[in-house]
From TrEMBL, chain A:
Origin species: Haloechinothrix aidingensis
Protein's UniProt name: sulfate adenylyltransferase
Top EC class, one word: transferase
Residues covered by the Tr-type G domain: 2-216
Residue ranges the record marks as coiled coil: none
UniProt key word Translocase: no
From TrEMBL, chain B:
TM region(s), chain numbering: none
Domain Phosphoadenosine phosphosulphate reductase residue range list: 44-267
Region (Disordered): 290-314
GO-annotated biological processes: sulfate assimilation
GO MF annotation: an example: sulfate adenylyltransferase (ATP) activity
Signal sequence segment: none
Descriptive protein name: Sulfate adenylyltransferase subunit 2
Taxonomic classification: Bacteria, Bacillati, Actinomycetota, Actinomycetes, Pseudonocardiales
Length: 437, 314
């Protein structure tokens, strides 16, 4: 079975993201006849003589009316080498929350720039969001290369500026690849183009098909957020009590010593159940039901962790947040915090710093965090949380901040320090080692 | 649903079940979603039409809570334009797993004047009102649907937890950020959340999963002989919704259905596929998406689906 790559597009509005996605779908023959008919008809209606491939992804009425992307579109396509889940994200500043949504689970991001405009403010903002989320690999697609006469030096200048920037954000040099493309004409998208003889790297799809996907580390410590307690109380299973959840990291086997947090109760795993039968071992990503030796009081929201390396529950969190709401965050705000399967009340004690993603430096003790700001905060929670550092365990190191009034999601939160610059108050280090996990 | 137990646990370290393939990952994601809803909502319900997506949905719900019973009822919005085989299948499944079934009959809404029959006789668009009324009446706060993002461009934009306002409407511009696998199910009184555990599945994944899990489906999904007539390029069959009009000839054809819906506008495709494997081979070779091939009402306008979703359709 071929492997799966989850990727997201990013970049400023009009840089060609939707056209590129349409091109990838079209050139990999993932567009079925009736969808193409619909797009061709719509393009003709708009007076175009070739199909506008961005219409394959811009599916909302207001998107087609305005010719922009408002929300993430998830598309699925496959080549003989690999299957892809692609999130096409919007470029507008006001829809950055949708870009964050699309990028949060991506293993690779394709960041586009328009060759005529180069790296823009929004390019830098998206690069910062990708670095913060720890998206491990970046491709810079220098698009519309047709509009600069396939000029090598234009490409080189943009590629260098961006690579330096990405490295400052913490990307290792080798994880950023720049490709000159024309999403509209197809140059270097699926096959290498004769129009860019000076470019010797792979076409975009070639790279996507062959880039290694990092597997979840097998030796990471075991974490299972308890979602639901299964107690059938039926004639066949009168005393059954199992703790159901999706393994967030590590592996578990019967006989393992575990600790239930935040209570700190110790126990031993006696079985791992699924509807298909018991398992001898289960790893990260599996939804299972774990049985324990002792009759403990365990509820939804608790965390079962390996006894040898469990996180210390704390009601004081230092975290990086990406603020996604129109209303600002201020110290003293009361919010809800969802971590794993648990939602608790939280109090914003301090906004320590804001990350200036344009200049890559920290602004100490800002008044507030506004829409799209990335900042370092200190939170106090109403109950201790067994949280890990996001860089070592993203699933148990991430949380949402929720508005207690209307239930809206206000921010993406990452336990620990997202950027070197936020940690020590100094300008970002440029050694390229820190920020991506 | 086949949940036969293997007698012996797989040997530790064999790596066989620690590694997770694509279908297993999709299954695991869906089970996670079911359990989140069970943990956070008071009155969830599963939309169940007897079609393949909702049957897979139910299969996953059963697996998510095993060995306990599914802690939610099913809701069928019944257009009255049914295939007998599907209703028979629905009732058999409900019986077998000891489930509770709520049926909202479009006919009842027509009879008491809350709805009027459309001139074209199609009832798919009429399902919205009975659905929303029933959600309100029972106080359902989470409604599981079998929608997939690969079905259509507007669905490709929808979150897994999709908030509906007090009028049951989807507001695409107000969608919440949905990060990692943290789902936000908060809603105010009167609002509810539609939940789509199959969001990231393709049609092909659904069929492969059905084959792998040996999920039983209504017989109309497999090739059979049927009297059909051609309308708008689709093979329709006679039923409670009427039959061929003047000039529409009836032919006996070997056909199967790719979706289950209002019989008046759900077309059959010519096919000889009588097994899951043969159906998969056909799906693979197919050049039309399932909705485009077989649902007349999706062809109406470019934005047909989005408009209906905004109104509160599935
Ligand atoms: N000449 C040229 N035009 C392009 C190229 N890629 C995109 N465009 C055009 O740029 C505009 C914006 O494209 P779109 O895909 O909607 O950008 P998005 O906002 O990043 O999704 C459209 O008019 C496209 O046709 C390209 O490679 N060359
Ligand atoms: Mg776009």
């Amino acid at each position: 079975m071929s492997s799966l790559l989850r990727l997201a597009t990013a970049g400023s509005v009009d840089d060609g993201k939707s056209t590129l996605v349409g091109r990838l779908l079209y050139d990999t023959k993932s567009v079925l006849a009736d969808q193409l008919d619909a797009v061709t008809r719509a393009s003709v209606d708009r007076g175009l003589d070739t199909p506008d491939l961005s219409l394959l992804v811009d599916g909302l009425r207001s998107e087609r009316e305005q010719g922009i992307t408002i929300d993430v579109a998830y598309r699925y396509f496959a080549t003989p080498q690999r299957s892809f889940v692609l999130a096409d994200t919007p470029g507008h500043v006001q829809y950055t929350r949708n870009t964050v949504t699309g990028a949060s689970t991506a293993q690779l991001a394709v960041l586009l720039v328009d060759a005529r405009n180069g790296v823009l403010e929004q390019t830098r903002r998206h690069a910062a969001v990708l670095a913060m989320l720890g998206v491990p690999r970046l491709v810079l697609a220098v698009n519309k290369i047709d509009l600069v006469d396939y000029d090598e030096s234009t490409f080189e200048v943009i590629a260098k500026e961006f690579t330096d920037h990405a490295v400052s954000l913490g990307y290792p040099v080798g994880e950023v690849l720049s490709i000159p493309i024309s999403a509209l004409q197809g140059d270097n998208v699926v096959t290498r183009s004769e129009n860019t003889p000076w470019y010797t790297g792979p076409a975009l799809l070639e790279h996507l098909e062959t880039v290694p996907v990092a597997p979840d580390p097998h030796d990471a410590p075991f974490r299972l957020p308890v979602q639901y307690v299964i107690r059938p109380r039926t004639a066949d299973y009168p005393d059954y009590r199992g703790y159901a959840g999706q393994i967030a990291s590590g592996t578990v086997r019967p006989g393992d010593e575990v600790v239930v947090l935040p209570q700190g109760l110790r126990s031993t795993v006696t079985g791992i159940d699924t509807a298909d039968g018991p398992l001898g071992e289960a790893g990260s990503g599996n939804s299972v039901t774990v049985l324990l030796d002792d009759d403990l009081d365990i509820a939804r929201g608790d965390l079962i962790a390996s006894a040898g390396s469990a996180p210390e529950p704390t009601d004081e969190l230092s975290a990086t947040v990406c603020w996604l709401a129109n209303s600002a965050l201020r110290a003293g705000s009361r919010v809800l915090l969802k971590h794993g399967a648990k939602t608790v009340q939280a109090f914003v004690e301090e906004i320590v710093a804001r990350f200036d993603e344009q200049q890559l430096r920290a602004v100490q003790a800002p008044e507030s965090l506004e829409l799209n700001h990335i900042g370092q905060v200190r939170l106090r929670t109403s109950e201790p949380l067994p949280a890990d550092d996001y860089r070592t365990s993203p699933r148990t190191g991430s949380f949402l901040i929720i508005d207690p009034k209307d239930g809206d999601t206000l921010a993406a939160g990452l336990v620990g320090v997202g950027f070197p610059a936020l940690g020590d108050g100094q300008a970002a280090s440029t050694d390229g080692q820190g920020a991506t996990g | 649903m086949t949940a036969e137990h293997t007698a012996e646990p797989v040997a530790p370290g064999s790596g066989q079940d620690a590694a997770i393939d694509n279908l297993a990952a999709l299954e695991s994601e869906a089970i996670h979603i079911f359990r989140e809803v069970a943990g956070e909502f008071d009155r969830p319900v599963i939309l169940f039409s007897g079609g393949k997506d909702s049957t897979v949905l139910l299969h996953l719900a059963i697996k998510a809570f095993w060995p306990a019973p599914v802690p939610f009822p099913l809701l069928h919005v019944d257009t009255g334009h049914n295939f007998d085989e599907v209703i028979e299948f629905r009732d058999r499944v409900v019986e077998k797993y000891g489930l509770r079934l709520v049926v909202a009959k479009v006919q009842d809404w027509i009879d008491d004047g809350r709805l009027t029959e459309r001139p074209d006789g199609t009832r798919n668009p009429l399902q919205t009102t009975p659905l929303l009324d029933t959600i309100g009446e029972h106080g359902f706060d989470a409604v599981f649907g079998g929608g997939r993002r690969d079905e259509e461009r507007a669905r490709a934009k929808e979150r897994i937890f999709s908030l509906r306002n007090a009028f049951g409407q989807w507001e695409p511009r107000r969608q919440r950020a949905e990060l990692w696998n943290l789902y936000n199910g908060r809603h105010r009184p009167g609002e509810h959340v539609r939940v789509f555990p199959l969001s990231n599945w393709t049609e092909f994944d659904v069929w492969n999963y059905i084959a792998r899990e040996k999920v039983e489906l209504p017989s109309i999904y497999f090739a059979h002989q049927r009297d059909v007539y051609l309308r708008d390029g689709m093979w329709l069959t006679e039923g409670p919704w009427g039959g061929p009009r003047d000039g529409e000839d009836v032919h006996t054809r070997t056909v199967r259905y790719r979706t289950v819906g209002d019989g008046s506008c759900t077309g059959a495709v010519e096919s000889t596929a009588t097994t899951i494997e043969e159906v998969i081979a056909e799906v693979q070779a197919s050049r039309l998406t399932e909705r485009g091939a077989t649902r007349a009402d999706d062809r109406m306008s470019e934005a047909a689906m989005e408009d209906r979703k905004r109104e509160g359709y599935f």
